[in-house]
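ok trying this again, last paste got cut off
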Amino acid sequence: MTPSKSKMTALSAAGPGFMQAPYFETSTSSRRVFIADDSRTALLFKRASEQKAAFVRARQCFLPVARVCMVFFSTRFPALGSTRIKLIATFLLFSFLTGGVPLLVGGGVLYNTFLREAKIRVTQDLNAARQMYDDHAEKMALALRVAAEGTNFHGIFQDSGTEGLGRALRSIAESGPFDLVGLADAGGRVWALSSGLAQNLRSAEKVLPSVEKALKFHRPVRGTMVLPLSDVALMDPALSERARLPLKPAPAEALSRRSLDEVMTLTAAVPLGGTTATPAALFGIKVLNGASAFVGGIRESLFRGTEHDGWNLGTVTIFLGDVRIATNVLEEDGQRALGTKVSPAVARQVLEQGKRWNDRAFVVHDWYITCYEPITDLDGRPVGMLYVGVLEKPYAGVRNKAILLFAALSVLGMSVAIGLGYFLEWKIIAPICRLSDAAAEVSKGNLHPDLGPLEKGEIGVVQKAFASMLEAIRDRETRQRRETESKLVMAQKLSSIGRLAAGVAHEVNNPLTGVLTCGHLLLERDDLDDEAREMLKVIVDATERVRRIVKSLLDFSRQTSLSMEPTDINRVVLDTLPLVENQAAIKGVALRFEPGEGIPPVSMDVQQVKSVLLNLLINALDATDAGGSITVSSRVALSMSREGVKRLGVELSVKDTGCGVPPENLEKIFEPFFSTKEVGKGTGLGLAVAYGIVARHGGVIRVQSQVGKGTEFTIWLPLEEQEAGR
């Protein structure tokens, strides 16, 4: 059964840890890609960090002494206190103190760059080695499945007994990647072995883990299995002798045992079908202890036999626990390092913590760039390790050359320190001092300080940037002053006109009321002829219009107190739009509302804001022809407040597709009595009143217009501090 591509992709995405766990799908063509675990990248700079720390400690001890010496010589020799001498002394001291840092850090960075690439390469090689390791187990499982489906073991047993089964199993073992093939039942009894020694295990009380899982899940099983050496000896004495490896102690370590008493194997098991009463499984074993050909094939595939100074550049090892059981790492006498142990740090991280090791490691007799990962058994427990490594010597040579190069550069740097001090004093310090003095002048309010002659290079760029900053500040000051003056003029104008309008309105309103009352009384008389009645209606209508103008003057001049309350701006719009919907429908103008989302309540006088919005809507209707549209929208926006500070607030926009306002009229549009409408259609006070209401709310009203395209009025009202901070 071959897994689908999507299944294998999911397994690959799960990462190396998942692929090491036992699973029950087999395939000969699928390939899994492991992603390198770069969790130990921080250790790349370990050496350089330690050396740099030592340098820092030395500098901390030396600097106080250097300061005392400089103070002593500056008091005895006043000329030494000049800035030029201080610069030269500082650069010399800096060169001597930091001359070693380029040697260590520069060489280390270059070396670690190569080292990092080598680690990535080794990680990829380990992924490939793991793939070959798993593929071998998959081939075993596939061979057993083919044998199970193509062989009638029940018939062979009935015809020839266990001897016939043994011959069939030997044929399977010889034609497949096995050291041993057997047939066992769920009770642990081994009925036949390719070695012919099944009678040794027929009374066994424990079941092989692979057989147990194959029968439990009724599916093929493959993976790693560790067996006692004594059990292997019962199944095949010759195989157990081959798997017996002597242990070699590490320096200053005493051995508690002389040889391994366990055997690591690759195993596969397939449940048998048929009508047998007792469930049985066909299993195969590949012994990894001493499997030099197995790891040799992996190394040849990865490194193609590449050598460095007579030693293998790349090596591959399989560990049982922390002991090498199959390797092409050689000892100094040229023998394979079988039975030797891995370092405790690697064993602790890989076997105990279940994590990859991807770093330098001392392997037997030399330093290698290595990658280890745990090998887990059928139950997911770490029982060993798979290792791939390359010699560090080729990369160390690159580091040594880099150190020599940086040493030459450091000597060259110290040679030019004195000249550099003079150059910096003349080229840098003087312009910087002028810029510092100019900054002090600006802080005192002088926006035209003397920056001196324009220098070349970076200092000149700084001078230009400083001059540009001053120009921007001057422009901003000028613009803000003009805006303030314009607002003051507008406020004074509105105040003067308001006082005048209030006086005129009060003087006119009383006699006007009398005229209007008399007119209405005369219209109620029955003795008037038609001509007199029509003329009287004209008088009454004209008087009504004058009365509306007087009322507008009173509204404009009256400063009523605001009734502020937190209000949903969208609700204000929804309450106002119905007042003009019929008029818009009659005229054939589309009326749309685009409410913003998440707008917090705004503190406002609802009635006055409604009157402002209604005035803008009526003006938009007057300016828009049939087929046009008016769009009202709301949103939260950051804008410049009346105090000249950017604040968060709510914008309410009324945009029409009408005739637009000529540019020369935009500056006068909020002035009292200014109107672009026909005579008799407006008083020219609506926008002036709206401007005053918005200003009293602490807001801003803006207008944008293009002749023939339309006009957009935008009202911005500030949010309260607590609302703005939400």
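PB: full thing came through this time. The longest strand covers residues 629-640.
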